[in-house]
Amino acid sequence: MPKELTKAILERALQAEMTDLLGYEKHDPAGRHRGNTRNGKSQKTLKGEFGELELETPRDRQATFDPKIVAKGQTPLDGLRLRAVPRGVSRGHARRRRTPDRAD
């Protein structure tokens, strides 16, 4: 997978994780006066088969954001497998499709 595409996918996933933590989309007025909000971004360097990759990871004011796709302190990108799921496919359906021992 090209380096630029990997960067875009990972940064989008990190933003989605932040949205999940905070409970509202970026720039959504519902997030005002909720106590914890987005607080900029910080740089993270990952190392993989493509060399080094600079990511912008989001931060929150209470420092409770603990990303899962790229964990804090993680620098090697080994073992990360990204899969494309067709638009409109539910998470449950996608999960069932990739389960190796499914009975169809």
Strand content: 15-25%
Helix content: 25-40%
Work out the radius of gyration: 16 Å
Counted by DSSP, the helix tally is 2
- SSE pattern: HEEH
Which structural category do the helix and sheet elements fall into?
A: alpha+beta
Strand order of the largest sheet: 1-2
Description:
The chain is α+β, with helices and mostly antiparallel strands and 104 residues long. The chain has one domain. The protein is built from two helices and two strands. It has a two-stranded antiparallel sheet with strand order 1-2. The two termini are 31 Å apart. The mean pLDDT is 80.
What's a quick, concise take on this entry?
This protein has 104 residues and is α+β, with helices and mostly antiparallel strands. It has one domain.
Q: Which descriptors would you attach to this protein?
A:
single chain, 104 residues, alpha+beta, two-stranded antiparallel sheet, 2 strands, 27% helix, globular
What topology does this entry show?
Elements lengths: L2 H20 L15 E11 L2 E10 L30 H8 L6
Antiparallel strand pairs: 1-2
